Amino acid sequence: SLIALFGGAALAALILVAVAGSVLVGQSTRPIEHSIEQMRRFMADAAHELRTPLSVLRNRAEIALQQPRDESAYRSALAGIEAESTRLARIVDDLLTLARAESDQRPVERSRIFLDDIVLDAADAARVVGLRKGVTVTVGEFEEAAIDGDSHLVRQLVMILLDNAVKFTPAGGLVTVRVGRQGEDSLVSVTDNGAGIPPEQLQLVFERFYRGDPARQRTPESASGAGLGLSIARWIAEAHGATLTLATAPGGGTVATARFRAGAQPPT
């Protein structure tokens, strides 16, 4: 009886160990499986985004070489090839930035910088882009805001927000950038009066290669991106212990806000 009792207890213990081990293995491998799935999706999306400009480049070159043409036709073909090459280079640069960010190969250099000075410089650059499209870029409320961060990355974040605002604002529209303080926090916001983003897509737009409703892509400028800008902007914000949010602007359009919290420590 004693042997049978110990045998039954040992069998029950083995069953419990097997069940518990299976549960633990499932829980431990689930994040790995999720990461692998994300990597596969990222690679598939990247291949899709790179395939389009490469196909356009090849087709333009093939058409130009099919028969002799005059100088203006060759110039037009070369201009199209240059435009697609620029878009391809921008996609590759964005992919490289995200890859370095995930592998911690892009160090964040920290120093005392002034958010207002960086925003003024970015706004001047955005005005040039806005003029070509007929969109006015203005500076609204403005006050001195000192933060600890990487000036190059912070400027890139602001430029991404301004570039997106200009892209999705129709000709004759207005983009306003503001810098201010809320308590000890420093904020920069970019508001446009464009088509806006549906509420259900406000978080999805931070995903890589996500470009939202095709109805919003009404111009070649708004459809030319690869959907990586906001992913990079969110990484820059998180690297500075800041938050980046999108909301519907009063009266239509979108307002993007980056909040740099005083004393916030970036994730290690």
Overall geometric form: extended
Beta-strand residue percentage: 15-25%
Instruction: Outline the low-pLDDT stretches.
Output: 214-220
Helical content band? 55-70%
Distance between the termini: 58 Å
How many individual helices?
A: 6
Strand order of the largest sheet: 2-4-5-7-6
Q: How many strand elements?
A: 7
What does this protein look like?
With 268 residues, the chain is of the alpha+beta class. It is built from six helices and seven strands. It has helices at 2-66, 71-102, 115-133, 151-167, 220-223, 229-239, and strands at residues 111-114, 136-142, 146-149, 174-182, 185-192, 243-248, 254-260. It has a five-stranded mixed β-sheet with strand order 2-4-5-7-6. A two-stranded antiparallel sheet has the order 1-3. Strand 6 (243-248) and strand 7 form a beta hairpin. Helix 1 runs antiparallel to helix 2 (71-102) and helix 4 (151-167) runs antiparallel to helix 6. The longest helix has 65 residues, at 2-66. It starts with a helix and ends in an 8-residue tail after the last strand.
Spell out the key features of this protein.
single chain; 7 strands; alpha+beta; 55% helix; 5-stranded mixed beta sheet; 6 helices; two-stranded antiparallel ribbon; 268 residues
